[in-house]
Design goal:
Helix content is 34%, strand content 15%. It contains twelve helices and eleven strands. Helix 5 links the parallel strand 7 and strand 8. The radius of gyration is 19 Å and the shape is globular. The N terminus is likely disordered.
């Protein structure tokens, strides 16, 4: 289930090539499947904390702008780390390179970490990326469905039974006191726009800063239904292995804090972030691509800021404990897992 979870950061549609969120699609055209990009800025001093590879999922995308910014502007080198960014191949498992030591970090959901650990991995979430959960239920604007409870009897499309759209569907059903038997679930791959626009499904699970933006860009009127005020899922985060954290804690802290500075920089100046990202995202120089990128960043800023109205990367053990309870109850974990072992909230300064 973790092998194609992206979506995760990030489901792809046809417009994904240069601008929209690329959370787990198998689209990997026009870019190398596993290319490494250097930090993009000369080191301002010795990399006293050594090298680190940050794994980004699949194709280059504007949603990775905080990492592009941190690399290009030298935030990692200033923190003493010789960091490089690596985009995964389309058929590569989300955590394969991390567990093999090819990467020291991966960008993934806290929920995906719990699921991976339940399958025998030893991963730890060390900093938050999105403060708010990005998955929503998307319906046509004229749909009679206005609440989660009204999903009963309807057909819901998901890319597959993996990743955050699947977890989000399970949460939506839970919040509405429904079960899978109360709805019809269709696995539609990454054809959400076509499936919803043609009436193949009544609703889809998608991302507020990806699918909603794509629908708007295509002129397809839709509405988003949130998953509730209390969401027991931790979304996209910075993840490492327990071994890397134990052996190189200062490096982990430096990368996380530099990355959060990158998020803040993108929030403060999205237009500048797009220009920085043109060095990393093929085709982003085009006017249409930049317009789409601006819409994606506008939709991403509330997710980065969350209720605190600022990105800070903070995590709490209690969120992971609540998430493990929900995921276990929903049958999303293959076996019991220690939620507290899957997070280190002290990396960003909160125990």
């Amino acid at each position: 289930m973790t092998s194609l979870s992206r979506r995760t950061l990030l489901t792809l549609g046809g417009a994904c090539l240069a601008t929209t969120a690329c959370n787990g699609t198998a689209v990997q055209k026009a870019t190398s499947s596993a290319t490494a990009s250097s930090s993009g800025s000369p080191s301002t001093g010795a990399a006293r904390l050594g090298k680190a590879v940050i794994g980004l999922t699949y194709i280059p995308n504007i949603q990775f702008a905080p990492f592009y910014w941190a690399a290009t502007k030298g935030l990692y080198s200033q923190a003493g780390v010789d960091a490089s960014l690596r985009h995964h191949g389309a058929s590569e498992g989300l955590f394969n390179a991390l567990s093999s030591g090819q990467e020291q970090f991966a960008i993934a959901g806290g929920d995906e970490v719990l699921q991976a650990n339940s399958e025998g991995m030893d991963l730890v979430t060390v900093a938050g990326f999105y403060r708010a959960y990005p998955v929503v239920v998307i319906v046509p604007k004229d749909s009679p469905i206005t609440t989660l409870e009204q999903l009963k009897g309807h057909t819901i499309g998901v890319p597959g039974k993996f990743g955050e759209t699947w977890y989000g569907l399970q949460l939506a059903l839970h919040q509405a006191s429904l079960t899978e038997k109360d709805v019809t679930i269709q696995q539609i791959g990454y054809t959400q726009q076509a499936a919803l626009a043609t009436g193949k499904v009544d609703a889809i699970m998608g991302f507020a800063n990806n699918d909603m933006v794509q629908f708007e860009g295509a002129g397809v009127p839709v509405r988003a239904i949130g998953l509730g005020d209390e969401i027991p899922l931790v979304s996209t985060s910075i993840v490492t292995s327990r071994a890397v954290l134990a052996e190189r804690p200062d490096m982990v802290r430096a990368v996380c804090r530099a990355s959060v500075k990158g998020i803040q920089a993108v929030v403060d100046d999205p237009a500048a972030a797009i220009q920085v990202s043109t060095r990393h995202v093929p085709g982003l120089e085009a006017a249409a691509a930049q317009k789409s990128a601006a819409a994606t960043l506008e939709a991403s800023i509330p997710l980065w800021n969350g209720d605190q109205q600022r990105p800070d990367g903070l995590l709490t053990e209690s969120r992971f404990v609540a998430m493990e309870k929900f995921m276990r109850t929903a049958g999303l974990l293959t076996k019991p897992v220690d939620a507290r072992h899957a997070v280190d909230a002290s990396v960003m300064g909160q125990s």
